[in-house]
Amino acid sequence: MKILIADDNSVERLILSKVLEQEGHEVVQAETGNQAIDFFFRHSPSLVFLDILMPDIDGYEVASAITRGEQSRWVPIIFLTSLTDAYDLAKCIDCGGDDFVSKPINRIIIKAKVDAFSRIANLYETIEQQKSEIQFHNDHLIQEQEAAKKIFNNIAHRGCLAAGNINYHLSPMSIFNGDLMLAAETPMGGMRLMLADFTGHGLPAAIGAMPTSEIFYGMTKKGFVIPDVMTEMNTRLHSVLPRGVFCCVVVADIDALDERITIWNAGAPQAYIIDLESGDVEQVHSNHLPLGVQSPQRFKVNPQVFSFSKKHKLLAVTDGIIESTNEQGEMYGEERMLHFIQNNLKIDNLCSALIDQIVEFTHDAEQGDDLSLIEVAFPHHHLEQQTAADDDEVHAQTGTLDSNFSLCLRGKSLGKFDPIPLLLQTLLECRELTPHRSRIFTVLSELYNNALEHGVLGLDSEIKSGSEGFAKYYQMRTEGLVSLREGFVKVEVDHRPLKDGGEIIFEFVDSGKGFDFKKVIKSGSKHYSGRGLPLLMNLCESIEHFDDGRRIRAVYRWHAKDPEDES
Amino acid sequence: MSVGSNLSADGKVLTITINGRFDFSAHQAFRDSYEKLTPTPSEIIVDMVDTTYLDSSALGMLLLLRDHAGGDTANITLKNCNEDIRKILTISNFEQLFKI
Amino acid sequence: MSAALDLQIIDELKLIMGDDIGMLLETYFSDSVIKIQELSEIAERSHSEVTDDSDIIRRTAHSLKGSSKNVGAKNLAQLCELLETNARNNQLENLSIQVEDITQAFEVFKIEIGQLLSS
């Protein structure tokens, strides 16, 4: 070590120097207080011995000058004193000294103290070094997180969260709390929403969210139903996420045409379907393990169906809301939540009102950073508004403009496979059809479901009246599909170009008992609970029934470039 | 928070107890209580009589335990869960994976 | 047995300084001469007057005491301590005598340490 000695007594100075040099240290000698200060800043010693009584300024002043001037490192100061009074000795420490040593000096004591301080100084230096390393890594990490956030935003938030019927709270930090909120319009004329909560925090949670959102947007756009999307997500997450990391999710399809909501909750706190008129609140509880836990073979989705119209609202939250604690350690809890909803039915923006309440409850604005919730009202049916063609669609590529394809699903396959996305995609290979995507989807979907549900399964749509009826109907549908062994639905699609566009002929044949279609057309829309035949008749140029209602032929006529003419 | 473990005399039943909060701080201790045992016990009991609280990282740890004990063939019982803990397990549908 | 030399300290000093002990003692001698000179001057001046220089006397005696202890000049150190205390309490009636004693003790030490080291 380099050691500075300040003592006006040459003999003392010499002896101490010699002692230290024998221990291998480098010594700088100062004769006066001012010289000591000067030498200290010039030579940067690691340790200082200060005599107290010096001719110009005393040791105490030197000590404070040193400690004031040296901010970046710690230099121990040992006073040399012939004083014996405890008060005086204590004063040494008070004035910025770290220790004192009595005169005349004892070689052994000097050695011991120097060694001790040397150890402490090394320790201090190590800590400083580690501190800068940590600082460096921390800054680095923050930069990476910022970049990751931006990438994540681009991928995950392409959806329609900005839609007029949605209010939501999702803080920028939520991403790194593992919360994900996705919303997209569905081809069937409605909206699909998903609120997900990945276990864990930070980058691992955020990374899991990426394949999840890709799957969500990709499959929703193609018209896949919730069970298929969830199955794909679970399979992916099951293989990708480490054991012990999983995703709690609430996903819902709002069908604007049918005025119903299909909803599934896996491991998340209950979601609420609120009837604004009657004040009834339906609680949708979790009925499945979170995504990523169950192996694909055992994974099975059973969504629930409720009626949902302009007088309804959906509210979904992550557990941050329920678990918000106040100063007494009480959690906000589900009861308070329900109570809040029931008392605030008329409020337009339930979302921000709830957030305000929670912040008030916890007296801690910071907790607001960990809350995610979404409030969804009935969406506008977007078949009424034309959606623009995707920017990256290329014009004048005919693809399947002139084609005929058919598919027949029998028995168990009928129960297990949904052919609509496949049929739609094949048709949409013809790029000119892109602006018509939603209508074509609706036509396909309606025709297929009629053939499947009313035809093969023999379900009577009258069961669907009333909200309990909905649930019952879809339960029967699910059970019917699971136990289906025989029966078939055959689809044939014929697409031909015409001078100003094209014509698609859909032909559906089912193995059901048939029905008196003449009677149904006459009696009007009531039979199909608000949609169905009238809508098809609206969208299609013509609809014909054959074989006692078992075969139906629908013609869809489209014109290139001005699809607004189609109503 | 502390984790205790007790192996039966014949080495077939492992009982793990968790006192206090079962959260991420229990991570290492929990793993240590079962990881090194060979052969893996055929039955594992997690006794939560003194467990006050369970969070999602605890759920993750239970999944890890299940995986270690053979996944679908594992025999794990979660015993003496209090009301709050039961609720969390129910929401996550963990009764599909563990005996409660 | 000498009262002037603290043999233990001197042995330690030999261990510490090694061959440089001569150089150290030279430093000590020249240093002390200056200090004793100062004390003598003050003693002469204040023959008649009560002196204001008690502070200087105290500090000089203190310093000389310190270095004398370091080199094992036992007697000398004791005398300096006495002078230092007197100066602090302003009891300087015997200043001249005390300075005389100190000068003598110094000479004795010089001789004795010289003898010790050459043997």
UniProtKB/TrEMBL annotation, chain A:
One annotated GO biological process: phosphorelay signal transduction system
Residues found modified as 4-aspartylphosphate: 51
Residue ranges of domain Response regulatory in the record: 2-118
Pfam family, one: Response_reg
The keyword Signal is assigned to this record: no
Gene Ontology molecular function: any one: phosphatase activity
Lineage: superkingdom: Bacteria
InterPro entries: Bact_Sigma-Reg (IPR052016), CheY-like_superfamily (IPR011006), HATPase_C_sf (IPR036890), PPM-type-like_dom_sf (IPR036457), PPM-type_phosphatase-like_dom (IPR001932), Sig_transdc_resp-reg_receiver (IPR001789)
UniProt keyword terms in alphabetical order: Hydrolase, Phosphoprotein
Keyword Hydrolase on entry: yes
Protein name: Fused response regulator/phosphatase
Organism: Aliikangiella coralliicola
Lineage start: Bacteria, Pseudomonadati, Pseudomonadota, Gammaproteobacteria, Oceanospirillales
From TrEMBL, chain B:
Coiled-coil ranges per UniProt: none
STAS domain sequence ranges: 13-100
Alphabetized PROSITE patterns for the sequence: STAS (PS50801)
Gene Ontology MF term list: anti-sigma factor antagonist activity
UniProt-recorded name of the protein: STAS domain-containing protein
Taxonomic placement: Bacteria, Pseudomonadati, Pseudomonadota, Gammaproteobacteria, Oceanospirillales
TrEMBL record, chain C:
The HPt domain, residue ranges: 17-119
GO MF term (any one): protein kinase activity
GO BP terms: phosphorelay signal transduction system
Pfam families according to UniProt: Hpt
Tagged with keyword Phosphoprotein: yes
PROSITE patterns reported in the protein's UniProt record: HPT
CDD domains (UniProt xref): HPT
InterPro entries documented for this protein: HPT_dom_sf (IPR036641), Sig_transdc_His_kin_Hpt_dom (IPR008207)
The entry's keywords: Phosphoprotein, Two-component regulatory system
Protein name: Hpt domain-containing protein
Biological source species: Aliikangiella coralliicola
Lineage: Bacteria, Pseudomonadati, Pseudomonadota, Gammaproteobacteria, Oceanospirillales
